[in-house]
TrEMBL record:
Designated gene of the protein: LOC108049277
GO cellular component: voltage-gated calcium channel complex
Protein name in UniProt: Voltage-dependent calcium channel subunit alpha-2/delta-3 isoform X7
Domain VWFA positions: 267-449
Membrane topology, as annotated: Single-pass type I membrane protein
Organism in which the protein naturally occurs: Drosophila rhopaloa (Fruit fly)
Amino acid sequence: MAWSRLLAWWRLCLGLLSVLVCLAPCVNLQPAENINYNLVHSWADKLGTELFHLGDFITRRKEVQESFKDAKVVSRNGASIVDSMAKEIEMMMDLKVSAVRRIMDTAENTALSHQNDMADKMFSYYSAKEMLEPNDPVPPIPTPAPDMDKDIGEPLIYVQPKVVVLEPRPEFHNTPVNFSVSSVHVPVNVFDRAPDVIKAIQWSENLDQIFRDNYKNDPTLSWQFFGSSTGFMRQFPASKWRKDVPVDLYDCRLRSWYMEAATSPKDIVILMDGSGSMLGQRLDIAKHVVNTILDTLGTNDFVNIFTFDKEVSPVVDCFEDSLIQANLGNIRELKERIESFTPKSIANYTAALTKAFEILEDTKVNSRGAQCNQAIMIIGDGAPENNREVFELHNWRDPPYKPVRVFTYLIGKEVANWDDIRWMACENQGYYVHLSDTAEVREMVLNYIPVMARPLVLGRHDHPVIWSQVYADIEDTKLSDYLWDINQCEYQKADVLEYWQVHDRMLEPSEMHRRKYRRMKETWNQPVDSNVYQFMTTVSMPIYDRRENATKIANILGVAGTDVPINEIKKLLSPFTLGVNGYAFIVTNNGYVLFHPDFRPIFQGYILKPSYNSVDMIEVELLDDDRPARDFNPVLMTIRDSIINQSTGSKWMLVKNHFDEMKRVARIKRQYYWTAIKKTPFTLVISYPEQYGVSHMDIRADQEIHRISIKGTNLRSVFSGKRWKIHPDWLYCKHSNRTFKTPEIELLYFLERMSEPGWRWPGSRSAMPPEHAAAMFCDRQLMQALVFDARVTEGFSNTTSFNSKDDKGNEFKQRFGVTVAFLATHSGLTRWHEFHSNAAEESGVGETFSQNNTRAIDEIWYKRAVDQHFVREESFVYSVPFDAGESNSEILVTASHAVFHNEGGKTAPAAVVGFQFQHSALYKLFHNITGNACAVDDKDCYILDNNGYVVISTRVHETGRFFGEVNGAIMKRLLEENVYKQVTVYDYQAVCFESKSDNNASSMLFSPLFHVLRVGKWLLHTALWYIVQLLQWAPGVSSHYADMYGDSNDTEPPPPAKHQEHHARNGNGHGKKDDDYWLRYLTLHRTRLKPCDMKRELYTLYKEKDNVVYNMTAHACERPFVVLPIPFSNLILLVIDQLCPRDGTVVLTVNPQPIDYPFAVNESLACYKQAREFNRMRPHSCISRHANESGIKLCGKACSIYANLGLLLLCHILSRWL
């Protein structure tokens, strides 16, 4: 029985087994693991070890560290540093103020002594636009002709241009100048032979002597100038005006330094007549008047514009019944909205004036706005009544004082009701102007400036010192719009040429996306440093007419000033004292930065941003919190208030620092110190990291320059050879009366002087007048540190030490293709050594490094190496250029390692060593280590850096790309598993592009020209279509364009089959439908620049050394990858199972993305910012009234009827004959 049961169980088991075997192919079993964790771990260890040994040998980092053993480490005193820097800047700025004051005194006295001189219309002066150099061709003298000047009714005057010798000078950015005379710039809207203009040019020529004396007393002075109220500007030293701009828009009276010196801060309400009569040319003139008024305002002024018909409405709805700060962003918003304004019905002047007075009263009562001058600007074609009761109620309550001035601008040639609108201005201490042509607008509008300046002139003795906001030399922001339009035209031209080459391939989505992405990348180019523009601030003072009868008109003669280049201020900050990743910046009374390491005023490399100089400090100091955009931390707001109030203080903050083209980010704790720069509206702020900024290197007493010179050390000998450079922007030593070709030659000169007996260090780093100091000055602490660094690193560039016969050394150099080894120290010294593939030195090897890597602690590789030290001391930072795989040139990998010096429990960064080697050699090493495991189709292997950029990929074209764009799904998993952390960085200085086209259908009803424009657009389309056809049909034209623009490499992909079929059916491939599509694409869709906010999602590795994710193995398709850190580096190794399905729809990017603010209808960023405006400190100077002003009756001329004698004679003859 037992055997029978056993046999039955056996048969049952065999049956079940057979069933399972039969069904086995249908069972979905998990595949075996495709990625061996231990194998990947061995790859990472071997790669990291080999690279570290290479860097260790090439850089000799241990020897470098040992060389600094005699230095000491001391604590950094932030409060003392910021106080010392502020005093240096204050001293320098006092010298500039003294120079301007001398110009002002001389100008007032000279004008007084020449008050009885007659204007000489044939007077010859050095015209900045017309003066000649000795080798310039002399223009022919025009023959006398009876031509008359239509504007003044007098014969045209020709004066031979004067000849001047100009010489380029580095202190003026190599602009050719002459230090003997000054030159005069006259705007295009000013006639230089008008009596008042030429007379002012005559007497102001006597300022040349004080210009020369000022420059002799202070050779660090930049441009000195006198801006006349008549419109011209006298500038010293003499130089030619730029001719590379399409239109000379410059008028000194519209510059902030002139406006703020000529008038105290002001609150202005602009009222624009919206009646139906304000159409056609009147509307154009009125808009031009408004724009010109806005151009005269600065960041200390407040303004709003209202249009009035039956109702009074703000042109920008969200600005409502308030005054907004006249910064570039707000002014641009007002200009754009006024451009789209169209008149409607009858104008209600009473309601408009009442609204304006109520707004000004409310602003004053609630302590908003400028709290100084107040004015109403009325622009219209006539008022039905004078509205006396409104003025009695609001403006005449405290006679004779009238708190609000009224300026009226009567528009139109034939106007009847001029007396009432003139009365408004004359009875309210304003000025009346009648305008009948756009050409006279600027000159007439500027008449309000002398009126606003009357209290200043009547006071006579009070000359306010004005410091301007940062600005770009002589550039006008209107030029930015012009350059952007030119840029768009270049894009369209490129599209036409490209279409000729690739035809319909250009219309493929992939090609269109590629082209759009390429152009967007160009707009993202926002360099911090640029040689295109010279950024500066200006100190200026008003110049008054001192004549006895001048009190009856209170005439302002002009403004005197001098520029202070921002780079010159930066040199006084001594970045050396702040150390690596430390920086300083200056904040104005409005909270805007004068300069900052994240101040990015230009985009695309050469175009000024629309609101480039109104960047608030809280928009560049980004706290490391999770707050949404523009929800600023209260702690930061409190610090900002303390800074603009010019208090002294300090604070720690956790911040996000972005760098390297805004594609990398570091989250660090920083210390901030700030103090006021006395007698200026500026506050100086310094900051440095907590981890390594609290201590710094210093030399011991026996290492000082004087002592080692006594011992017989030749200072120049430690700077032998040519393989060294110093930081080009730091002030080591400076000679006031000599210039040098390079900073290195200048340094050697001073080292020679220091070796001479009797050398004494100047008492100050900044330039002092000759009676107080010698012609040369030095930064003693920096020079001591530089010489010490040079002595201890002297052997680094020694050729024999690198070109040894060591087999190991030769093996390393050949295997890795090492091109250069380098060293940079905290004192700004950079040394390097080139490696050559053979005994004969190759010319050019290493030159690229020495040209592009001279800024020592300011280089990206230096900063990253110091940060990496606190992740792992024994490690190198490796990097490749962004998108390096897209170029055809050899890719170089840069590796750097920080050398720290420790003493007494304190540590400080002393230097960074590194090397560059060929990327192809690194790829080969990686391939040798991994064998063919990463070359097969089932695995993808990547080496990523600590910010997520591809260093090594099996597809070389992916090198330098952000990994989230290569494989977004895996990058997302790395975020979820805490390999990387996402850090959101807001860019409050971004530029966006909005369409210029007006999609509002109502505009078609008001403009009959709309249909004409549609016909013109159709003609343009047709012309472009025929041009494209001509390029394809004309053999000669085709061959010419092929030679010039043809793609010799034929790298474009072939056109898709559907387009080939279409070509086959239609002969030349241009059917009507495709033609229309192409023409729609080709036609330039113009955009305008717009300030906006953007954000970037950047990434950084978690710094936990024992991150558990690195112990996790791959688990089929649930976790189809293994990620491991590569030892001794900032890299990770990522191996992905390619057999698992990949979600290609997930893409993570580091490119800027627009921020979706909860805007209301018709609301813009300017509105959003206005609702969240920040505190500001008003200027100390406010002179808005004077008791004697009521006696001045000059308020503009009444309308006149000009008789045309020819017409009168013709009418008389006709009347006799008819």
